[in-house]
Amino acid sequence: MDAFLHVLQRGDLVNLAAATLVASTPLVLAALGGLMCERSGVVNIALEGIMLTSAFVGYAVAFNTHNLTLGVLAAVLAGMAIAGLHAVLSIAFVVDQIVSGTVINILAVGITGVFYRAYIQQAEVRGPGVLPVWKLPGLGDIPIVGPIFFQQAFVTYAALALIVVVHLVLFRTVWGLRTRASGEHPRAAETAGINVYLVRYVNVIASGALAGLGGCYFSLQQVGNFLPGMTGGQGFIALAAMIFGRWTPLGSFLASLLFAGAGALAGRLQIYGVHIPYQVLGMLPYVLTIVVVAGAVGRAVAPAAVGKPYRRS
Amino acid sequence: MEWGQVHALLGENGAGKSTLMNVVYGLIRADSGEMQFDGAQVQVHSPQDAIGLGIGMVHQHFMLIPPLTVADNVILGQETARAAGVIDGRASRRTVNELSRRYGLQVDPDARVRDLSVGVQQRVEILKALYRGARLLILDEPTSVLTPQETEGLFQIVRGLTAEGSAVIFITHKLGEVMAIADRITVMRRGKVVASTTPAESSQADLARLMVGRPVLLRVEKGPAQPGRPLLQVDGLSVLDDRRQVAVDGLSLEVRAGEILGLAGVEGNGQVELVEAIAGLRPARSGRVMLCDHEVTAASPRRRLRAGLGHIPADRHRMGVILELPISDNLVLGDFDRPPFARGIVRLLAQVRDHAARLIKSFDVRAAGPQQLAGALSGGNQQKVVVARELSNGPRVLMAAQPTRGVDVGSIEFIHRQIVEQRDAGLAVLLVSSELDEVLSLADRVAVIYRGRIAAVLQAGEIDRDRIGLLMAGGQADQVPAASEGAL
């Protein structure tokens, strides 16, 4: 209780909110990717592996070119490539989607670890730095709202914009309608003349682009370095956010804020010297994930055909 | 086929009607042969090709997407879009409304499909085909889910379509409907056309003979029931469905030894939940189920089985048989773990095989042998396996849900005969069927279920097709003209 009062007394709420929004960035992006994918009928538990790979590739490219923009671009492309692998495995080869995702997660840990040790760990050159904070002129000066929303770096702005974009795509466009149809009842979609395979391929690969962008947050926006396993299970938390957010962009955003907020709060409580071991506080987001997902299970409404491979007869 | 006509395609389940139509619609590719449409030879490799030619199909299992709106379902695949692929919602709603009005379909474009009754869903399917410019409409077993009144409504829609110059292929196995709606009739048996005729030139008996290949009994022969004491009593039972809505609402009924109680109703009025609650597969929220004088409301399915309940489930593939297991194992699903089929933890496979061989013979299951996988059997023979298992347990109450769905005429006859024989042997039979004809020909009394309640129970003398139809659609018992009051 003391600690909460501290937060209030120091007028630190704006700071906490800003930190929450920043920390939610990779969750939001991965959750958006996950829901594009799952709405089309493909489970994507490979989000974690995609983010990790993209974090690495983004960093490696930025490191070698000294160009952060190229790094971000490379991270997105890497995400699409890995997701493409998931798509081929689960759509063309009809591999169980959970198995395919797990394989990718393991692969990502292995590959990034090897290349990290081989090329990055020993490098003595200066790193590429981090994406700069852009304070938007005008908007950034609004009290309270400005520091929270308009004094951020690129990936966070992109995440906020993409929430709206994905929402519009999913619920207002032809593509979104076809995506939802493919995820609910692929056979019905097929009889309506829709190429379910194509819809699923594109959506899975798009999910890789989104999660890939989320991945480069870790190496290029948050830290400015790559560390093995630096995504720390956030891909899985993003999945939980997507489920808790009922497979909608807005819901996923709010759920991501909840999880990210738990993490940000835990961090602050440590700073204010609460007498709880930091390991326990660090567990907060993960424990919350379990509680929330356990509570959401049964009530959440997944796309009816998600996880079921589709075969033309 | 000619424009402006209804062409009925008649045949048993498995005769190849649906397969033929799936070829026409491009869902299945033909191995040989050719197809002519509008005087020209055509190649249909996909549903898109068929749609392009003006062929539309309403599948037996609807191809609708339940969480989407009617308008979304209709336009899916051929959306009108503005810039950047944004759907023009207003235009699509307007089109749906126009089509709906023109053909008298009465569908709200903004309703979600999952909230619509089956009859309305079917109209959405027709709307879908019309939206795609269908001039030839294929209806695959369209009346199997409709009340008699809804069927009449469908016939009017079909007549409206043909009056506008469209052609309709009407796939069915119901003879009465063929006589009522068809201009021409083609009869199929085992993948071949065996006759082509018109209603004026043939009779129901002729068509039945053509369809099955031998004379068939159209009515089940049975003597009057000799009801004994009640063996199954359901008292004030309430059950929730999967969406936690009340599906069975304080329902009461009783079935006596030696009688068949038919439960008639449009699908989705709580039959599934009622059957599952009686079988112990779904918890009762309140009320009681009594089986042979024992209360079993909270008992496990296994205990109910032992207490004398036989259950022929509606969904054969989900609950009736395990397709991946051989017939022999399927025949001992309730008893595999106890004598004579097991000693301790050891299964006695020779006993299982002998048991299977006996039942295969006495229930006329057309199979290569006890080791054949259930999945390799035809629907009718799978159902015979289910019936054989449930009756060989020596039940005192038989609950048969849609016992002849997806089953050929020969097997239907056989299963009906079995049910009547069991009744005569003193079993209490609860027959749940959405095929009104089946209820009418088998039941000694008919209970009509509507929105989870029994709307009325009709005794032997007062069973009347139109009256039941009205009750199924929610008409009040006292509004329905009847010889006598039958409500319980």
TrEMBL record, chain A:
A family per Pfam: BPD_transp_2
GO molecular function, one term: transmembrane transporter activity
DNA-binding is among the record's keywords: no
Cellular localisation: Cell membrane
The keyword Protease is annotated on this UniProt entry: no
GO cellular component, as recorded: plasma membrane
Assigned keywords, A-Z: Cell membrane, Membrane, Transmembrane, Transmembrane helix
InterPro entries: ABC_transp_permease
Annotated membrane topology: Multi-pass membrane protein
Chain segments annotated as transmembrane: 13-35, 42-62, 68-95, 102-120, 154-177, 198-220, 226-245, 252-271, 283-302
Protein name listed in UniProt: ABC transporter permease
Provenance organism: Candidatus Dormiibacter inghamiae
Organism lineage: Bacteria, Bacillati, Candidatus Dormiibacterota, Candidatus Dormibacteria, Candidatus Dormibacterales
